[in-house]
Q: What sequence folds into this?
């Protein structure tokens, strides 16, 4: 059996780092077991689903390094869902209900007042054909509920019915179907809710493992029952903890919270996002993995905590910086070329500036400073201007190398008496136009003696 997983976002917004956690758990699980990864767009909500969001999700996954083996859209599979619904209706397992939301809420409150579980009482099963016709004559259209197998002979006399599974993440789990209402599978307007299309697709696409957020644990009992009602063996299930902000708030596609697109635009490295999304809330230390292969070696779904994982977005910047600082020129050569950084000096330049970058794109600013002119972020006092002109008199002759800065500043110190910040800061400002930046020992050979003298004068 080939392990087959799926990531099933609704294309109603941009995916955020919490969605990314689910996608990566599935991708890494398949990667470790030489399995298949399916990207399934749950786009049955025609009003809210947008192709631009589907394209954006695919682009975000590709940026992270996730390459689906198959991509499917639910909007093209309605005939499969219709056939499954008819099969359930014929078996008496999908029945019409006519209650309004107000009527359902009133019944819920009555049950609570009687200290009964607030579950649907299956009143719709008592309706005669004449009563159904009368309700429809009033303009009511039914929603359709799946009859849970939580009774022996009489559906109005439920009994404890345990559904058990060995969760890939959480270990042994049990859900009592008697504690649940019969789930609505089809709305009154004829559109499908998530459950039926999802189960049908998992059956048809041969999904062997469903790994998702732990907000679906309770739903799993009903879905396992639905798999069996359709004559299929349920897949294995795994439920990972959810990510929240430091304040404990959930993430939402609608608000764009920490969207993958915004993180990419901010220059965060994809492996920083992947590493944090996967490792936070597990027994592993959160560290930046350099590749998916390395992250897969660290990934163990059973090490995931059962409580929500809170994280600080600032952690992403730290992880991203670490990744950039250890990147070789070969790692970034193509990206630098896009920024216009190429030629014989490109590698030496990268090694000189990488330790000072928050994002690879910032290298373009330093390339401009080295190749064109200093920035204008800081200015010299008149006293310091006199000093840097004097410092120029002590410049060594070429050729220059990584030792030139040390030799030069030693000579300047001996000739002027300046030392420490009073020596180094004016030289940095004169050469780069900034008070902070890469080590000048690496930049000086790139500037060359003629350009350095010009900037000191």
A:
């Amino acid at each position: 059996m080939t392990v087959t997983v799926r990531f099933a976002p609704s294309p109603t917004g941009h995916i955020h780092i919490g969605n990314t956690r689910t996608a990566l758990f599935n991708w890494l699980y398949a990667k470790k077991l030489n399995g298949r990864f399916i990207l399934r767009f749950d786009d049955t909500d025609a009003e809210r689903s947008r192709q631009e969001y589907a394209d954006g999700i695919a682009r975000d996954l590709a940026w992270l390094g996730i390459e689906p083996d198959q991509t499917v859209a639910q909007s093209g599979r309605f005939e499969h869902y219709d056939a499954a619904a008819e099969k359930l209706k014929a078996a008496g397992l999908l029945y019409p209900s006519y209650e309004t939301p107000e009527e359902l809420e009133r019944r819920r409150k009555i049950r609570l007042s009687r200290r009964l579980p607030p579950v649907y009482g299956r009143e719709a099963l008592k309706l005669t054909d004449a009563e159904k016709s009368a309700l429809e004559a009033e303009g009511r259209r039914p929603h359709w509920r799946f009859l849970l197998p939580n009774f022996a002979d009489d559906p109005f006399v439920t009994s404890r019915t345990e559904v058990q599974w060995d969760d890939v993440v959480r270990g042994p789990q049990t859900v009592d179907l008697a504690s649940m209402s019969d789930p609505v599978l089809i709305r009154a307007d004829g559109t499908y809710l998530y459950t039926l299309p999802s189960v049908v697709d998992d059956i048809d696409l041969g999904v062997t493992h469903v790994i998702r957020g732990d907000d679906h644990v309770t739903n799993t009992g009903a879905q396992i029952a639905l798999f069996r009602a359709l004559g299929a063996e349920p897949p294995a299930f795994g439920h990972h903890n959810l990510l929240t902000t430091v304040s404990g708030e959930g993430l939402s596609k609608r608000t764009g919270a920490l969207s993958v697109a915004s993180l990419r635009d901010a220059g965060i490295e994809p492996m920083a996002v992947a590493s944090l999304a996967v490792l936070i809330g597990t027994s592993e230390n959160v560290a930046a993995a350099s590749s998916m292969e390395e992250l897969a070696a660290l990934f163990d779904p059973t090490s995931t905590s059962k409580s929500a994982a809170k994280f600080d977005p600032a952690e992403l910047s730290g992880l991203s910086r670490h990744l950039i600082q250890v990147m070789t020129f070969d790692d970034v050569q193509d990206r630098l070329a896009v920024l216009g950084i190429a030629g014989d000096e490109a590698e030496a330049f990268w090694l000189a500036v990488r330790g000072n970058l928050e994002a690879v794109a910032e290298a373009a600013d330093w390339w401009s400073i080295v190749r064109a002119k200093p920035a204008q972020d800081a200015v010299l006092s008149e006293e310091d201007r006199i000093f840097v002109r004097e410092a120029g008199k002590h410049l060594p002759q070429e050729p220059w190398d990584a030792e030139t800065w040390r030799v030069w500043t030693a000579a300047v110190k001996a000739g002027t008496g300046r030392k420490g910040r009073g020596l180094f800061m004016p030289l940095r400002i004169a050469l780069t136009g900034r008070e902070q930046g890469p080590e000048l020992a690496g930049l000086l050979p790139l500037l060359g003696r003629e350009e350095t003298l010009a900037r000191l004068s």
